[in-house]
Amino acid sequence: MRQSKTIECEQCGHKQPVKKSDTRQPTHYPNIFNQVSNQKSLPLYVQLNHRGFWTTNSNGDHLPSLDETCNRNSVMLSSDCLLYVYKLALRHLLLSMQIVQPSEIDPANLVPHVVVRKSKDDPFSKYKSIQDEHFFISTEDLSTKSDFIMIELDKKRDLHMTLIYSKGIGKKINLLEAFTNIIKLLNYRPELIASYSSLEYFGFKEMEYWYESGSSYPNNILIPNDYVKIVNDTPKMNITSAGSVI
Description:
single chain; alpha+beta; 4-stranded antiparallel beta sheet; 6 helices; globular
């Protein structure tokens, strides 16, 4: 009998099956992943650092705030926090592989954040307690669905972090495998961690470049000085006054 493909945690030995729908069309990762198979991946032990509550001003800019009386419930992770790096690194891979498009990176996908309370009056707010706290993350703590992958930091306290949300993404790529590959790559090329942390405004301006330069992955983190954005001309159509295409 043919055995189903599984991904195994290197420390606890827990195995999670790869869904059949994910194996019908094998994913072709960038060539560098052929070199990282022997690298460490899960489990992880990471420290959480945040900059305060995630707020958005009238101009649409996402900014941290130390005001605990604000009406926001998520904290914005610090750029030197590995959880922050994981979110940017996974986005970099998915854009470079054109699994997702830049237009899909909405604020929730852009800003690395964790929900810490239900409201500003929540007596069980974890705003202060999770600052500098360490979390152990195994395969069992990664939740994958058809539309997203999430890290369950602490199920009892309902602490979780969504790494990416995209409608139907689970049919395009096995997100657990993709995340595991990212960790292996960061162990193989640790200098990439500093590159992700150095990006301004959560890597917002780099997104279209990543999407257009996948052949250079992972060396396309930073935009070169001579980069010129590809502009696709809108096709011209003959239409009637009611908008029907002639």
